[in-house]
Design a protein that fits this description.
Helix content of chain A: 40-55%
Largest sheet of chain A: 3 strands, antiparallel
CATH class of chain B: Alpha Beta
Radius of gyration of chain A: 21 Å
Structural class of chain A: mainly alpha
Oligomer: heterodimer
Strand content of chain B: 5-15%
Number of helices of chain B: 6
CATH architecture of chain B: 2-Layer Sandwich
Shape of chain B: elongated
CATH topology of chain B: Alpha-Beta Plaits
Distance between the termini of chain A: 5 Å
Shape of chain A: globular
Strand content of chain A: 5-15%
């Protein structure tokens, strides 16, 4: 990274972090206000809410579970789920990145964890270990949750969901889930974003629904530099190899279904290569000479093994 | 550093297996009993249909409804009434039962008349009830919204409950003047899931 880029990066305003934390906090605030008698605009909890007493929003997973477990077919409930499903079709899993109250808590937890780790930087191999939570478990867990609801007639996830626990505590004064939430928070200091990446079936469902959403992180082919600094990938909370599809296949947008459109990669990018918006998912010729293009396919997962000196911080 | 998939899978499997086993065994036994809002489905059907959003709690004009936290076990996130604290006033000053109209999932089913609500049945403890121990007291009778049908005074001025007419709102339980209420609502689910 050049000197100019470095100084530019250091005074970069993390606009997406500020925005997404504001919207998530705003949602939580609305839920909290909804528990007041005088506030009638927004009522409900994390599973189902009503805007202005008329427009329903329903967590699609909660609706599915209520249908499988209790045979619930209320039109209003399904209308609410339909609205969020349509939104996910267009915007992808933005709920995870921008609305989820638990996401907000874990986002701030990860922020704190990174800061403190930075303060107490030690030699490699010392201090608190940092593990990468495994991917690919959310969809099996989603299937399990749905199967359980159907077989046992009990909405398993809605009862134990830490997202709900948080809302029950903050909005309805039903405390008691704090031990579980505290356990998760502590665990995520070793396994950052364990919940979001490996466990959350709701995130899995939203990822599935938003698989082909046109709203995504777009790559500006003209602004992309000549070397891969890798800051986007190291800062991605979901552990996505952000620029990989661009450098290897020339896709001008992030294709990974796990992407929550949180914008963490955009905030850290020193060259404003990445933006959030509607962009074609099409591919073009990579206008970018990736140092890894000479690497054999087998080393793509871990490019450092093939690049001399590593791709970071050059 | 990567957490090995196998150890993660093993941990997940252990938790899931244990959790599922525990939950299923709990569900196979008796379903948690609580005084539910008016119109609530019975037993397991209610647990299945309730979406745990808390809109009924927010809609109640008297703050009679509360939400179970995780301490409620299988009932976590579902609404209940603690009658001794704040009973269900059956929305007497409203045009409708607010919690039922707020429920998005139909776990609280519409009730035609307030007298058709069946939250439970009041039960009198004759050992502690003043009226059964020689002191005239009409507190429960005065407050009962269905006095004369649900709560009747017998020839000796003692209260008796007609289980067919009692809606289980708990207003009497709240009003009872003895230290521990001598008249307590037995939730509908306590009768083996039957009304």
């Amino acid at each position: 990274m050049s000197k100019a880029a470095k100084s530019r990066h250091s005074r970069h305003v993390p606009i997406h972090a500020i925005l997404r934390r504001s919207t998530a906090f705003g949602f939580l605030l609305l839920l909290f206000l909804g528990s007041m008698d005088w506030f009638s605009w927004f009522k409900g909890g994390t599973t189902a809410t009503r805007l202005f007493g008329a427009v329903p929003f329903t967590d699609p997973l909660a609706a599915l579970e209520a249908w499988l477990a209790g045979g619930v077919t209320q039109p209003l409930l399904w209308l609410g789920a339909g609205i969020l499903v349509l939104l996910a079709f267009v915007l992808g899993p933005v709920f995870c990145g921008w609305i989820c109250p638990l996401g907000l808590l874990l986002d701030l937890n990860e922020f704190l964890q990174r800061k403190i780790r930075h303060l107490f930087r030690r030699k490699k191999g010392k201090g608190l270990p940092l593990l990468s939570p495994p991917d690919g478990f959310r969809l099996p867990l989603l299937l399990f949750v749905l199967a359980f609801s159907f077989m046992v007639g009990f909405p398993l996830f809605q009862t134990i969901s830490p997202i709900n626990l948080l809302a029950w505590g903050l909005v309805f004064g039903a405390w008691g889930g704090w031990i579980l939430l505290g356990f998760l928070i502590v665990l995520e200091w070793v396994l950052p974003r364990l919940w979001c990446r490996s466990l959350c079936p709701l995130g899995g469902l939203y990822s599935l629904l938003g698989r082909f959403a046109p709203f995504r992180v777009c790559v500006s082919t003209s602004k992309a530099g000549k070397t891969l600094c890798g800051l986007c990938t190291t800062n991605c909370p979901m552990g996505i190899q952000v620029m990989e599809n661009f450098t290897t296949k020339g896709f001008a947008s992030i294709q990974d279904p796990r992407c929550t459109r949180c914008g963490a990669c955009i905030d850290v990018c020193p060259k404003t290569v990445l933006t959030l918006g509607f962009c074609s998912s099409g591919r073009g010729a990579p206008s970018f000479s990736d140092p890894r293009s000479n690497c054999p396919e087998s080393t793509l997962e871990n490019p450092d093994s093939c690049l001399s000196g590593g791709a970071h911080g050059t | 550093m990567n957490l090995s998939r196998r150890s993660f899978l093993a941990g997940c499997g252990l938790l899931l297996g244990g959790g599922t086993g525990f939950l299923t065994s709990q569900l196979a036994g008796s379903v948690p009993v609580a005084l539910r809002p008016p119109g609530a489905k019975r037993g397991k059907a209610f647990l299945g249909a309730c979406i745990r959003c808390g809109q009924c709690v927010e809609a109640c004009p008297y703050d009679s409804l509360e939400l179970f936290g995780i301490g409620g076990g299988l009932a976590a996130g579902t609404p209940f009434v603690e009658a001794r604290k704040t009973p269900c006033y059956l929305c007497t000053h409203e045009d409708e039962l607010k919690c039922i109209s707020a429920c998005p999932s139909g776990a609280l089913e519409p009730v035609e008349k307030r007298s058709e609500v069946r939250m439970g049945t009041a039960v009198i403890d004759r050992k502690t009830c003043f009226a059964y121990n020689g002191v005239t007291c009409r507190v429960c009778w005065r407050v009962c919204p269905f006095q004369g049908t649900a709560l009747v005074y017998d020839k000796r001025m003692r209260p008796t409950i007609d289980p067919k007419a009692c809606v289980g709102c708990g207003i009497c339980e709240e009003a009872c003047i003895t230290e521990e209420s001598s008249i307590v609502v037995r939730p509908a689910d306590a009768n083996g899931g039957e009304g």
